[in-house]
Amino acid sequence: MEASPSNLIFHELIGLYAEVFESTNPKLINICGRVINETRNMLVIEMKDMHEKMVPKKGTTFVFNLPSSSANHDQRVKIYGTLLLSQPENRVKNIRKIRMR
Predict the structure, then answer these.
(1) Which strands sit side by side in the sheet containing 17-23, from one edge to the other?
(2) What pLDDT, on the 0 to 100 scale, is given for residue 100?
(3) Is 46 helix (H, G, I), strand (E, B) or coil?
(4) Percentages helix, strand, coil for the chain, rounded to the nearest 5?
(5) Is 28 exposed, middle or buried, given 0-12, 13-18 or 19+ CB atoms closer than 10 A?
(6) How many angstroms separate the CA atoms of 97 and 23, rounded?
(7) Mean pLDDT for each consecutive 10-residue tract of the chain (101 residues)?
(8) Which pTM was predicted?
(9) How far apart are CA 70 and CA 73, in angstroms?
(10) Are 35 and 14 in contact (CB under 8 A)?
(11) What is the widest separation between alpha-carbon atoms in the chain?
């Protein structure tokens, strides 16, 4: 299944372009780049200058660019980091549980 704004929290985030929109730590705001790793509590974002930043999910709002099937433009989706708090492999499995209801 393809990632969409309605089911993004259940999909793999590695490889997506992300931007920190809001954060409890003002130094993290406007960090943007590709997500290169994800843990239970953190996203690792590789910025344009090839530096990696570890951004906590809790207390942070992210904007992800979803590649669109049409070449016109990507979709931008705002997600609260608390919705992403779990191990990535478990979060991806949760969509199956929701569908079975």
Answers:
(1) 52-56, 42-46, 32-38, 17-23, 60-66, 75-80
(2) 46
(3) strand
(4) 25, 35, 40
(5) middle
(6) 30
(7) 80 93 95 95 94 96 86 84 88 61 48
(8) 0.84
(9) 7
(10) yes
(11) 45
Q: What token pair was written down for 51?
A: 């530096």
Report the distance separating Cα 78 and Cα 75, nearest Å. Answer: 10
Cβ pair 24, 59 in contact under 8 A: yes
Type of residue numbered 42: M
Q: Which two tokens stand for residue 94?
A: 């949760």
85: tokens are 């708090």
- Residue 87 one-letter amino acid: Q
Report the sign of the C-alpha dihedral through residues 22, 27, 32, 35, in that order. Answer: negative
Q: Which pair of structure tokens corresponds to residue 32?
A: 């943007």
Is 69 exposed, middle or buried, given 0-12, 13-18 or 19+ CB atoms closer than 10 A?
A: exposed
Closest Cα to residue 22, out of 88, 77, 79?
Answer: 79
